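Supplementary Methods. Inverse-folding protocol.

Structures were first reduced to a discrete structure-token string of length 82. This string, shown here, constituted the complete conditioning input.
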């Protein structure tokens, strides 16, 4: 899976969870950049990511992720480990 494929899939997850069908995401985006992205929606996003990519994220991995780029990196590293 390529980074662009991961980001495209993530865009769909964010669009669904945040109810913003036209959302545009980039590697540097954080919770501060999207008003609807709060702690509750963050947990839903994490759950959707785990289900969609068939991975399990550890709490320490989630805490280390500071932006969407870090989330992409983590997803890609999980795929490499499979």
């Amino acid at each position: 899976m390529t980074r662009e494929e991961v980001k495209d899939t993530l865009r769909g997850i964010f669009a669904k969870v945040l109810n913003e069908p036209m959302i545009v995401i980039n590697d540097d985006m954080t919770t501060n950049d999207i008003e609807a992205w709060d702690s509750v929606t963050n947990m839903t996003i994490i759950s959707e990511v785990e289900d969609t990519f068939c991975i399990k994220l550890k709490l320490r991995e989630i805490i280390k992720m500071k932006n969407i780029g870090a989330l992409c990196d983590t997803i890609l590293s999980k795929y490499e480990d499979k």
